[in-house]
Design goal:
two-stranded antiparallel sheet; 61% helix; mainly alpha
């Protein structure tokens, strides 16, 4: 192997930033980026919390992912318009990991996946995405949509199912058995928010439909809780609680992400994990699955962004950036992150001019 090959691909990590500045960056570009960032942020914040909940972890870990991983990947990746954070595609993979290894195990697996992604980028494996058959990608995406939809049925209907497991068919049986516990008030709020989001695009207004759905749904739940005496509609504050340095509270902890050791976080039994060879060996398979899905989704997102903006991404640098984001974010409580096609498309359509994001 030549000396040139041994240098791998490190210079490409800064290619996007350098090209952006060389092309010129003025106040008009900054104004466009600020507006695009605000628009994407209004979508990303509630979505990140929702995806963390769907994964089986408290909602603040989704926020930490969007903040830490989103910033690192935007600065080091090879796609100028990609917006990264928690995505729906990962729910299918991450939910069973949380069930089996707990939050601590999920964060360790995310860090291991980050290392794999960095290695893939440094060894120029990013271009292999072109060999993935389209029917495979389409089938996988449809399968993810079905699984995620089923996982949201209990909350949408207000069912009392208890904790769901990692097997799809078993979860279907649990949901079916829990149908008599349907809560008409929670169902009504869900249907109302969904109807608003479906109708909103017809008005052709610049405010994104998910934000409007979030606001009207929250207001409806608040009004019903006041009218019915409180507690009838479950909220993030009523479902989740936190404890930091002896202080406790409900909902989202009012602190910024802080450096933490993932292996000190609880496993499936609530006890901090013991990092050993057996744990690492058990997490190799999930980490590899996370890395492969992250690589495919990120590079597909970059291809879509290229088509919308007439630009060209660097696949190897993008893998390195994704790896760095997933390696560092778990140290601040963040879960797995990858590029999100919906948020990236929103970013571009909102007038984004350069690569710096939320």
């Amino acid at each position: 192997m030549s000396r040139r090959r041994l240098r791998f691909h490190l210079p490409a990590v800064t290619t996007g930033l350098r090209s952006a500045w060389q092309a010129g960056y003025g106040l008009a570009d900054l104004r466009q980026d600020v507006m695009a960032g605000l628009t994407v942020g209004t979508v990303a914040v509630p979505l990140s919390m929702a995806l963390a909940i769907a994964t089986g972890v408290p909602p603040q870990h989704g926020l930490y992912t969007a903040i830490v991983a989103g910033a690192i990947i935007a600065l080091t990746g090879g796609a100028r318009f990609n917006v990264s954070g928690p995505t729906a595609a990962f729910v299918v993979i991450l939910f069973p990991i949380v069930q089996q290894f707990g939050l601590g195990g999920l964060l360790i697996a995310s860090m291991m996946a980050g290392v794999i992604l960095i290695v893939l980028g440094l060894t120029h494996m990013g271009r292999l995405i072109q060999f993935v058959p389209y029917p495979v990608v389409l089938g996988f995406t449809v399968g993810i949509a079905v699984v995620i939809a089923v996982l949201q049925i209990p909350d949408f209907l207000g069912l009392q199912t208890g904790e769901l497991g990692e097997h799809f068919i078993a979860n279907l049986a649990i949901i079916a058995q829990s149908l008599p516990s349907l809560d008409p008030w929670e169902l009504g709020v869900g249907v109302f928010a969904l109807a608003v989001m479906l109708y909103w695009p017809r008005l052709n207004l610049p405010i994104p439909a998910p934000l409007i759905g979030l606001v009207v749904g929250a207001l409806a739940a608040y009004g019903l809780n006041l009218w019915l005496g409180g507690g009838s509609i479950e909220t993030i504050a009523s479902r989740f609680s936190w404890e930091i340095n002896g202080e406790t509270g409900s909902g989202i902890p009012p602190v910024a992400p802080v450096l933490m050791a993932p292996w000190h976080l609880p496993g499936p039994d609530g006890v901090p994990l013991e990092v050993n060879f057996e744990l690492i060996r058990a997490l190799i398979g999930p980490a590899f699955a996370i890395a492969m899905l992250g690589a495919i989704e990120s590079l597909l997102c970059a291809v879509v962004a290229d088509g919308l903006t007439k630009t060209r991404h660097d696949p190897d640098a993008e893998l390195v950036g994704q790896g760095l984001g997933n390696l560092v974010a778990p140290l601040f409580g963040g879960i797995t992150a990858t590029a999100a096609i919906a948020r990236t498309a929103t970013n571009i359509r909102s007038g984004a001019a350069r690569r710096w994001r939320q």
